[in-house]
Amino acid sequence: MNPTPNQVLSVRSEEHRGGPLALLVGLVVSLTAPLPRRDERGLSQSTENAVLLAGAVVVAGLVITAVTAYVNKNMPK
């Protein structure tokens, strides 16, 4: 019979009781380990996409305005 996930966790937690020394060692290791480098490309890529999208919206607005003005100017009255 296979154990349930809760039974596996309970057995593993009973096997790995290290006491205060294990807690202290884990704390020291986690505090002295160098922090992972952040990937800075995400923000710049998102910013580039936002700027390009805003530029496309402005260009589309200018084209629509120009075409509307041309049509209104050249429509017979």
SSE blueprint and pairings:
Elements: H1 5-15, H2 19-32, H3 41-74
Key descriptive features of the protein:
77 residues; mainly alpha
Can you walk me through this structure?
This protein is mainly alpha-helical. The protein has three helices and no strands. The chain has helices spanning 5-15, 19-32, 41-74. The longest helix is centred in the C-terminal third of the chain and has 34 residues, at 41-74. The chain is elongated, with a radius of gyration of 32 Å. 0% of the residues are buried.
Query: What kind of sheet is the major sheet?
Result: none
* Net shape: elongated
Number of strands: 0
Overall pLDDT level: 79
End-to-end separation: 89 Å
Tell me roughly what share of residues is in helical segments: over 70%
Q: Give the topology string: H per helix, E per strand.
A: HHH
Cα radius of gyration in angstroms: 32 Å
β-sheet strand percentage: under 5%
Structural class based on helices, strands and sheet pairing: mainly alpha
Count of helical regions: 3
Contiguous uncertain segments of 5+ residues: none
